[in-house]
């Protein structure tokens, strides 16, 4: 935190503009050293851009726009300098090298956001939301990241911490001051307070699946026998010819994966080899891979030829499979009458809206809406909250069994620590290292 850090904050490569960010106690002094313009950086108003040039010992490197963001009213809470230069690889590198020679050091991945967290500009859930926003693939994922960045999840966690703090303070006061006639709460009231914490923990844990889907996408396997139209379905959903379509059985021998945006949800479509008995060693390996993909799938689109006799068997876990009857334009075999399926024609692009409706219903569930996905925890949050729920349950058990209040206080304290870890209220250097190492440099 005593160092001044610098990095290129725009993606690597050539572009019209590149942004170089400097943050730390001597950021403005560094700018004074390299920048020449009508106004010196030390005299510049915050959040205004000033035109000038960057000079090294040999002369001018580039014309730039420079802005100062004085702490604590900046992203990191420190003095921040941002330099917008031309986006060539060489000129950007030369300017950054000059800044590093003038008193800054190269920033580590995520170090700007880490400083924002350490300086109290955001909690840990908001810091993680920065990376979620950068990597969002759909509008829904972007909106969920914005909600978290604005502190929606953090506020719920803080409210839960207050509940636990109140419980713990009451129990510990009763333990520490037995002669002060502190009411230990009636049994029913105390139990209800613990149950309220358990319910809130369970509600947040229920959003873990949503969080994984928003961040990683729905792993959707297109499954079926050869020549039922699996590759055609992939191509139609993608909107272009990605997979080879042929009347020859066994054309697809390896899994093909692409991502589409289906109503705000990233769908990771995986076209697989057709399932049949085969003596071909390569095709058999493809079939084995198909079965493994089905086992890992969040959703299985089981494609069948509607014009052929019914021979379908369930292959996925209950609730994960959606039956799709392709080639509806050829007529439907009597065996499929009354089947709970989506009927489509890839050849004529018919029934695709109904298919999207059915996929969306599978993902969102019965009464769920897009708005319900605005809070979605990640795997780290999930682990912390599961730990907190375990300790909250242990506290309730200690109470129900009439154990000494010290036992309940110990469990509540452990639950409080676990909840605090979600927002970074527990000072753990290794935890921060793991989180911010996943960030890109310059953010």
If you had to describe this structure to a student in words, what would you say it looks like?
The chain has a seven-stranded mixed β-sheet with strand order 3-4-5-6-2-1-7. The chain has a six-stranded mixed β-sheet with strand order 9-10-8-11-12-13, sandwiched between helices. The longest helix is centred in the middle third of the chain and has 25 residues, at about 150-175. It starts with a strand and ends in a 7-residue tail after the last helix. The chain is built from 14 helices and 13 strands. The protein has about 450 residues and is of the alpha/beta class.
List the helices and strands and how they pair.
Elements: E1 5-8, E2 15-23, H1 27-34, E3 35-37, E4 49-56, E5 59-69, E6 80-87, H2 89-101, E7 105-106, H3 111-118, H4 124-135, H5 139-149, H6 152-176, H7 187-205, H8 208-216, E8 218-224, H9 230-238, E9 256-262, E10 265-271, H10 281-296, E11 299-305, E12 321-326, E13 342-343, H11 352-364, H12 379-400, H13 405-423, H14 429-436
Parallel strand pairs: 1-7, 8-10, 8-11, 11-12, 12-13
Antiparallel strand pairs: 1-2, 2-6, 3-4, 4-5, 5-6, 9-10
Helix pairs in contact: 4-5, 6-7, 6-13, 7-12, 12-13
